[in-house]
TrEMBL record:
Domain of life: Eukaryota
UniProt-listed InterPro entries: Glyco_trans_20, HAD-like_sf, HAD-SF_hydro_IIB, HAD_sf, Trehalose_PPase
Glycosyltransferase keyword on record: yes
Taxonomic source organism: Dillenia turbinata
Group of enzyme by EC: transferase
Gene Ontology MF term list: alpha,alpha-trehalose-phosphate synthase (UDP-forming) activity; trehalose-phosphatase activity
Protein name: alpha,alpha-trehalose-phosphate synthase (UDP-forming)
Family (UniProt): In the C-terminal section; belongs to the trehalose phosphatase family. In the N-terminal section; belongs to the glycosyltransferase 20 family.
GO cellular component: cytosol
Record field: catalytic activity: D-glucose 6-phosphate + UDP-alpha-D-glucose = alpha,alpha-trehalose 6-phosphate + UDP + H(+)
Entry keyword Phosphoprotein: yes
Family matches, as CDD domains: GT20_TPS, HAD_TPP
GO annotation, biological process: trehalose biosynthetic process
Pfam families: Glyco_transf_20, Trehalose_PPase
Length: 857
């Protein structure tokens, strides 16, 4: 049987028995819309589960990138046909090394070359059958707006910390370019949908060009197994928040199951943006970082990409490489080579490196004639005025340095600003004593990794260099602290590229390091780079993606939201939304009802700044209490005087103030305490500590109650407030260790209260009181919204197996929002809770009318 996994084109071309289940017939092409999309299409948007199960029995991964890992050219014999071949330098192709032999790979992306519409069908079929590539054909004008417009003028500069303070510094936000970006992402999504088997396939999306693609795929297939890796930096929240479509991009990324970053800094910035702009918090559990997003856990992966070792070693083995190394040895005989290899763009810091070289020659005249900086400047990927300015500045600086310090037979700076063959570039690595990377901002940068492998060399290159096989290899690195590979190179000399003097000093230090030190640093780096190659990176990412998608099957999912605000709600099968019809039906057929309601957050929004009662909620409670079959109890964290004033009209309403410390069974009853507390001397210890944190945390305040002290940071900076709350919790636990109190953290607050006081006591008191009166509840409704309400849920659920409830009791423990809870049901917000309670009131009123009509003559 022929495997569906092929390592190269030769395997695909050999044998007549090759079959490809999705290519045996011409695939219907999804229409490529040349226009701009302003909204996500509504068709098929209501999909809850995936389509019919796939017949594929083995793992398959669909890799999506801006460009396919292919090279294309026209035949030279005049018939004009296209010739395609693999691009061995493409990361998307190289990562296949980390996949198992039985993993089938499908590529989705665009082509660098423009294919005429008349040829697109034939080219698409050829690429699918021969290379398992699905091309996305983007109209040239749309692609220009997408790539050269939004990607390169807006996202790329912003992600590299360049704000559009003027038209010359990046591009001002242009809504038409954003629409083009969304349109192209939609076209890519359509191409993925042509080949995906959503129940079985994994999808791996790459880089900032396709950041909204996860939303399109999640909208169509709620349970799609989707990973995203960002290869650029992710800026700090202060930079990112300037982007007008910041929320749309964040929410789109959160439709992935796993989001990958090269460094912890990039991941930290992303998490901070999610916290500050979307109000999401993250947790770290057993080494894994995850964000809870509407019932789904979005995992965060931090792992820098590696290089393709085999490809590099194959190039090093070429005779052309040996010849080039020999040539360069002769050219630079008696000189020490410093090497820089960079793309010609504004963020690579080429001019800063040249200025540091100039400073080195000024401060150390003895280096003149001995040290040469070879700067390889790869052609720029983008285009624009900034690229031209960098080219002009680089040429002018090189000319000035060479005119000042050069002499016959010695040129301090050699600038190579043309495309080099791979073997030529690697030959320069081999002869360089030190490699310099002074980028001011770069997502990863694999130049130092390539340099280390080339300095390790092989036996043939050792012969060319005149080095014995037993001689330890050596290398030195000077790297910017602002590039992604810097944290993994602990033996490198890290520099701030903006500090010209420090970079010059680092260059001198690199040359002065002892031979044994160079060998130790090289050995350490080589051990890391050779074991953390691109295959290791890909395999590690896919393992985490598989783990992140493990519980997809058992989750119930449905989509909500419009446009790019779409997201999927995923819930445990046993945790479901409370149906108003269901609870009203149970309410009507029961005769002894216990209703326990949390007021703060459940019937009154937590974010509300109002200091008055919710009139609608008061009216509902008053009407519920009118039904003689109901015993209604309200629980609140507020003080008893406030609750007395707010609910004075509800005479039959039971109230628990300060989370259950004070209880009153009805409006006519006296307040009583549920826990005996001898004194509150501990307040004299806790309050000064809280005051200290209030003074240092703008927006925080202390809420003083009879039984408790609460430090609230609801209006403080979210991150700083959370950090201060952790410190305060630790501080209070320390100073109150010998006091009869408990210190707990909740939603935007830290509370100190007497031990044993919790809302569970209220639930126990309610059930005990009803039992004493001979009323065994056959209907129980308990609603809460935060961690403190879990005590009520626990008591109610435990009572189901005891004598406190009727054997046929119907119990509804309900929380607000989708989150881990002991409750079985949830409602989305306060408005839904009030609407549900209004339904119960309507049922009581209807029952009262019916009873009146039956008793009247």
């Amino acid at each position: 049987m022929v495997s569906r996994s092929y390592s190269n084109l030769l395997e695909l071309a050999s044998g007549d028995s090759l079959t490809f289940s999705r290519a045996e017939k011409r695939l219907p092409r999804v229409k490529t819309v040349a226009g701009l999309l302003t909204e996500i299409d509504d068709e098929t948007s209501n999909s809850v589960t995936s389509d019919a199960p796939s017949s594929i029995s083995q793992d398959r991964i669909i890799i999506v990138g801006n460009q396919l890992p292919l090279r294309a050219q026209r035949r030279s014999d005049g018939n004009g046909e296209w010739i395609f071949s693999w691009d061995d330098d493409s990361l998307l192709l190289q990562l296949k090394d980390g996949l198992g032999e039985d993993v089938e790979v499908i590529y989705v992306g665009s082509l660098k070359e423009e294919i005429s519409p008349s040829e697109q069908d034939d080219v698409a079929q050829t690429l699918l059958e021969t290379f398992k590539c699905v091309p996305a054909f983007i109209p040239p004008d749309l692609f220009s707006k997408f790539y050269h417009g939004f990607c390169k003028q807006q996202l790329w500069p912003l992600f590299h910390y360049m704000l559009p303070l003027s038209p010359d510094l990046g591009g001002r936000f242009d809504r038409s370019l954003w629409r083009a970006y969304v349109s192209v992402n939609k076209i890519f999504a359509d191409k993925v949908m042509e080949v995906i088997s959503p129940d079985d396939d994994y999808v791996w999306v790459h880089d900032y060009h396709l950041m909204v693609l996860p939303t399109f795929l999640r909208r169509r297939f709620n349970r799609v197994k989707l990973g995203f890796f960002l290869h650029s930096p992710f800026p700090s929240s202060e930079i990112y928040r300037t982007l007008p479509v910041r929320d749309e991009l964040l929410r789109a990324l959160l439709n992935s199951d796993l989001i990958g970053f090269h460094t912890f800094d990039y991941a930290r910035h992303f998490l901070s943006c999610c916290s500050r702009m979307l109000g999401l918090s993250y947790q770290s559990k057993r080494g894994y970082v995850g964000l809870e997003y509407y019932g789904r856990t979005v995992s965060i992966k931090i792992l820098p990409v590696g290089i393709h070792l085999v490809q590099l070693q194959n190039v090093l083995d070429l005779p052309e490489t040996e010849a080039k190394v020999a040539e360069l040895q002769g050219q630079f005989r008696g000189q020490i080579i410093l090497l820089g290899v960079d793309d010609m763009d504004i963020f690579k810091g080429i001019s800063l490196k040249l200025l540091a070289m100039e400073q080195l020659l000024i401060q150390h005249p003895e280096k003149r004639g001995k040290v040469v900086l070879v700067q390889i400047a790869n052609p720029a990927r983008g285009r624009g005025k900034d690229v031209q300015e960098v080219q002009c500045e680089t040429s002018a600086t090189v000319k000035r340095i060479n005119e000042t310090f050069g002499r016959p037979g010695y040129e301090p700076v050699v600038l190579i600003d043309r495309s080099l063959h791979s073997y030529e570039r690697l030959a320069y690595y081999v002869i360089a004593e030190c490699c310099l990377v002074t980028a001011v901002r770069d997502g990863m940068n694999l130049i130092p990794y390539e340099y280390i492998i080339c300095r390790q060399g092989n036996e043939k290159l050792d012969d060319v260099l005149g080095v014995g096989p037993s001689v330890p290899k050596k290398s030195m690195l000077v790297v910017s602290e602002f590039i992604g590979c810097s944290p993994s190179l602990s033996g490198a000399i890290r520099v701030n590229p903006w500090n010209i003097d420090a970079v010059a000093e680092a260059m001198d230090s690199a040359l002065m390091v002892s031979e044994s030190e160079k060998q130790l640093r090289h050995e350490k780096h080589y051990r890391y780079v050779s074991t953390h190659d691109v295959g290791y990176w890909a395999n590690s990412f896919l393992q985490d993606l598989e783990r992140s998608c493990r519980d997809h099957v058992r989750r119930r999912c449905w989509g909500i939201g419009f446009g790019l605000g779409f997201r999927v709600i995923a819930l445990d099968p046993n945790f479901r939304k409370l149906s108003v019809e269901h609870i009203v039906s149970a309410y009507k057929r029961t005769k002894s009802r216990a209703i326990l309601l949390d007021y703060d957050g459940a019937m009154l929004m937590q974010s509300s700044m109002s200091s008055t009662q919710n009139a609608e909620a008061v009216g509902i409670l008053k009407n519920l209490c009118k039904d003689p079959k109901n015993v209604v109890f309200l629980v609140s964290g507020k003080d008893r005087e406030t609750l007395d004033e707010w609910f004075s009209s509800c005479e039959k309403l039971g109230i628990a103030a300060e989370h259950g410390y004070f209880l009153r069974s009805s409006g006519n009853a006296e307040w009583e305490t549920c826990v005996a507390v001898p004194d509150f001397d501990w307040k004299q210890i806790a309050e000064p500590v809280m005051q200290l944190y209030t003074e240092t945390t703008d927006g925080s305040y202390i809420e003083t109650k009879e039984s408790a002290l609460v430090w609230n940071y609801q209006y403080a900076d979210r991150d700083f407030g959370s950090c201060q709350a952790k410190e305060l919790l630790d501080h209070l636990e320390s100073v109150l260790a010998n006091e009869p109190v408990s210190v707990k953290s909740g939603l935007h607050m830290v509370e100190v209260k007497p031990q044993g006081v919790n809302k569970g006591l209220v639930a126990e008191r309610l059930l005990a009181t009803m039992k004493e009166k001979g009323m065994l509840p056959d209907f129980v409704l308990c609603i809460g919204d935060d961690r403190s309400d879990e005590d009520m849920f626990e008591v109610i659920i435990s009572a189901m197996a005891g004598p406190s409830l009727s054997p046929v009791a119907e119990v509804f423990a309900c929380t607000v929002g989708q989150k881990p809870s002991k409750a079985k049901y949830y409602l989305d917000d306060t408005s839904e809770i009030l609407r549900m309670l209004q339904g119960l009131v309507a049922a009581s009123e209807q029952a009262a009318k019916n009873a009146t009509s039956q008793t009247s003559p």
